[in-house]
Design brief:
heterodimer, A: about 500 residues, alpha/beta, Aconitase, domain 3, 18 helices, 18 strands, about 15% strand, globular, B: about 250 residues, Aconitase, domain 4, 11 helices, 7 strands, 3-isopropylmalate dehydratase (chain B), EC 4.2.1.33 (chain B), Aconitase/3IPM_dehydase_swvl (chain B), IPMI_Swivel (chain B)
């Protein structure tokens, strides 16, 4: 591993916990209270949506006497408490529960078993159901699972069900979206300050909006479906401060691979990961999603990026629901700080078979590959394809290995065919991909990111070597047990497609 | 685990696993008589039936009825390493199976750990064509169950007949799913590297009261961390069953 531009400092550890009980916490020094109030006033100025009621409980204003991190504040508000500590178990009110075709039927089964055949979900507008995993397959059980979702949504009058009936042509299904995490963002279900739970580990993706979001199992989801609540343990927070100008050859995927490589696949188990710093502020919403999407690959419970004008701008035309962002207090306690100088980083990959098996892309230049895959919640968004197109455009060459493109959602697919790529003279991504000899972008879904049924498009049915923009490179993840997956950014994936070897994108971008 | 749970609760569990429950567990006071010495040489060959003489179904049932909570597990162990992810526990192609459907639950059991690379794990956890495993305890390293939130993972292990995983640490969602479903006891070891000292097929005892893992084949004894408040929840059959039992929620509607 090359030089690691990182410093880790153990900041305020929980050393003063014992002082916070009783009278001390109820009567803090006036100076501290004043500073907090002033701090919170600054934050309130940034809130786009004005509050509904003139009177707000202290937990929602940030004017709490007890300094908290963003994650603690969100959970405090959701549990109707003015303050809480990491490690506490609290009943949290859930704003959105998401499920999909893989875990939805099991969740529904548990909901019905436990609450009764005639039970109703706690709120038909807060349960969002997104078929996305095994859609374009002739697997009967997979098809049946989508039918189970449809029957349930009809029965329960679920407001947000993104159905697909015509599997032959996804465009004939205007409601169909595709990959749940990207669809949640695009359809306005991700909002600052809220709590979003989903039956998918990459639900942490939504932390990019400054909200608490985390993956849960079917049984927990069945409970939420019936009650709208879940008992959650408040996680302590690790803080990742990313500063410096982002080099033109790096993407957020490189940043998160850097972080996972640093702290390992269990480095954030039970913890929250908060990302901030000038680099994070400069990232688009899609790039922030890439960052938060993979916190689970470090074991993280959730990841958060503080909401800012980029967030508010993204949400402008997507939701009319009022939301209240919250921010970590200046003197909030983080169990550890990690600082990175992003300007010194280089393009990375995660070698088989672990997301923390970090290496520089250029260190792997002798690794011959059989295919490239661009897709998934992590690496199948519009900007991911734009990035790949930029590399193909810069090289003007053709790919040397089969290159599979799976847009995350229908919206992304349309962008590939509609949006001009900057600097291309008006060409779209799809035109550039065609000229480079890639496979035609296929129907949006989770696709082969997790293998899926045997007939899944681009599933790795042979023990091949793949460079992929997805999130996991475990044994068998994309299909074949002995397949080898190199996780990489869309830049690195496209560069590798052009050479047939794992390739540093600087070969084409500079 | 201090509170003894009436046997009735165990049997009233709605989970299909209860039908085979008695065959693979014994109770805290149903200790192993004397370990049959041939066991050592037979470690990889004995089939499930070898367990039966030790705890003949009828006897085990009688013991359970008289004693209450199940806190000790005996059987052959299956040993894995660090970072066993959910794709190895149950590959994604099998996620079309819905755990809440009894026949698909059983099918999940037949597929438990089928994603382990064959080269490193020549002995399958579940023999092809069988629904359950002859291994009743899984021993692993760090970060067991990392990856997906798929509840199919602990369900597959539970449905295979294994009731205990002993590992150094767990991924968060997997641990939570074990407890929420009540399928598996995710027990942590006090020390690291135990998995390196155990071999697949060793005969072991996991004692959740004494917090011990005993490897009879190797003649070793290890300390386990207490399962704590998660124990009674798993014993009850998951969070719903536990909440009903303790009066947190009322009896099932309709």
């Amino acid at each position: 591993m090359a030089a690691s531009p990182l410093t880790a400092t153990r900041s305020a550890v929980f050393s003063k916990k014992c002082e916070l009980g009783g009278s001390i916490s109820s009567s803090p020094p006036p100076l501290v209270a004043h500073r907090c109030r002033k701090h919170s006033l600054n934050k309130i100025l940034a809130v786009m949506a004005p509050s509904r009621t003139p009177q707000r409980p202290p937990s929602t204003t940030g004017s709490v006497k007890h300094a908290m991190t963003m994650t603690e504040k969100i959970l405090a508000r959701a549990s109707e408490r003015s303050q809480l500590e990491p490690g506490e178990n609290v009943w949290v009110n859930v704003d959105v529960l998401m499920t999909h075709d893989v875990c939805g039927p099991g969740t529904i089964g548990i909901f019905k078993r436990e609450f009764g055949e005639n039970a109703k979900v706690w709120d038909r507008e807060k349960v969002v159901i997104i078929p996305d995993h095994y859609i374009f397959t002739s697997d009967e059980r997979a098809n049946r699972n989508v039918d189970i979702l449809r029957d349930f949504c009809l029965e329960q009058n679920i407001k947000y069900f993104y159905d697909i009936k015509d599997l032959g042509n996804f465009k004939a299904n205007p409601d169909y979206k595709g990959v749940c995490h990207v669809a949640l963002a695009q359809e306005g279900h991700c909002r600052p300050g809220e709590v979003l739970l989903g039956t998918d580990s990459h639900t942490c993706n939504a932390g990019a909006f400054g909200q608490f979001s985390s993956g849960i199992g079917n049984t927990d989801a069945g409970f939420v479906m019936g009650t709208g609540k879940l008992l959650l343990k408040v996680p302590p927070t690790l803080r990742f401060i990313l500063d410096g100008e982002m080099p033109s050859y790096l993407l957020a995927k490189d940043l998160i691979l850097q972080i996972i490589g640093e702290i390992t696949v269990a480095g954030a188990t039970y913890k929250s990961m908060e990302f901030l710093g000038s680099t994070v502020e400069s990232l688009s919403m899609e790039e922030r999603m890439t960052l938060c999407n993979m916190v689970v690959e470090a074991g993280g419970k959730n990841g958060v990026v503080p909401a800012d004008k980029t967030t508010f701008k993204y949400l402008e035309d997507k939701t009319s629901v009022e939301y209240q962002p919250v921010y970590s207090d200046e003197n909030a306690r983080f169990i550890q700080d990690y600082k990175f100088d992003v300007s010194k980083l280089e393009p990375l990959v995660a070698k088989p078979h672990s997301p923390d098996n970090r290496a520089l892309a250029r260190e792997c230049k002798d690794v011959k590959i059989d295919r490239v895959y661009i897709g998934s919640c992590t690496g199948g968004k519009t900007e991911d394809f734009m990035a790949a197109a930029k590399v193909f455009l810069a090289s003007g060459k053709k790919v040397k290995v089969p290159t599979f493109l799976v847009p995350a959602t229908q919206k992304v697919w349309m962008d590939l065919y509609g949006l001009p790529v900057p600097g291309s003279g008006g060409k779209t991504c799809s035109q550039i991909f065609e000229e480079a000899g890639c496979d035609t972008p296929t129907s949006p879904s989770c696709g082969a990111c997790l293998g899926g049924p045997r007939d899944t498009y681009a599933r790795m049915n042979e023990p091949q070597v793949c460079v992929s923009t997805t999130n996991r490179n475990f044994h068998g993840r994309m299909g074949h047990k002995d397949g080898q997956i190199y996780l990489a950014s869309p830049y690195t994936a496209a560069a590798s497609a052009l050479t047939g070897f794992v390739t540093d994108p600087r070969e084409f971008l500079q | 685990m201090a509170t003894a749970v009436p046997l009735k609760t165990v049997y009233s569990s709605h989970l299909p696993k209860t039908s085979i429950f008695t065959r693979r567990n014994s109770t805290s006071n149903a200790h192993i008589p004397t370990l049959p010495s041939p066991l050592k040489s037979l470690t990889l060959t004995p089939r499930r039936s070898l367990l039966t003489p030790l705890f003949a179904a009828a006897d085990a049932e009688a013991d359970l009825a008289s004693s209450g909570s199940i806190t000790t597990f005996h059987g052959f162990c299956y040993v894995v390493g660090n970072n066993i992810d959910t794709d190895q526990i149950i590959p994604a192609e099998h996620l079309t199976l819905v755990p809440s459907k009894p026949d698909e639950y059983r099918k999940l059991g037949s597929l438990a750990l089928v994603g382990l690379p064959t080269a490193s794990y020549p002995v399958p956890f579940v023999n092809p064509g069988e629904n359950s495993s002859r291994f009743s305890v899984i021993i692993g390293g760090d970060n067991f169950g990392c990856g997906s939130s798929r509840e199919h993972a602990p369900v597959a292990i539970g449905a295979s007949g294994a009731r205990v995983v002993v590992a150094e640490s767990y991924a968060r969602i997997f641990f939570r799913n074990c407890v929420a479903t009540g399928e598996v006891y995710p027990v942590e070891t006090e020390e690291v590297g135990i998995w390196k000292e155990c071999s697949t097929g060793d005969f072991v005892t996991v004692d959740l009261v004494g917090n011990r893992l005993i490897n009879h084949t190797k003649g070793k004894d290890y300390k386990l961390k207490p399962i704590g408040d998660a124990g009674p929840v798993i014993e009850a059959g998951g969070i719903f069953a536990y909440a009903r039992k303790t009066g947190m929620i009322s009896s099932r509607a309709a």
